[in-house]
Design a protein that fits this description.
Helices cover 76% and strands 0% of the residues.
Amino acid sequence: MEKHEPINELILLEMKKQGLNTVDLARRLNLTTSSTYYILSRSTIQIDRLWQICEVLQINFFQILSNQLQIENLEEHFVDEEKEALKVENKTLKEVIKLLGSVT
């Protein structure tokens, strides 16, 4: 498993790029400075808080985090599942047609 960059470090990096400090972010989030320092000191964050930070900083951290997952072939996985379901359905229909053909 590849190492990922903790969310607080990603936020701090973006704040630096935008020339913002913790007091600025706290003000924009309508939080106390100490609450904001606490949020930024942790490597985990609540989704609703991250959503607010995304809006304030105008950056999609959810996309950045999902890119870090590097899940490949996710679409292929669902296509394969659908193919298997269609194969089963096809087999069932063939059996039904055989049965109906032997009834007449």
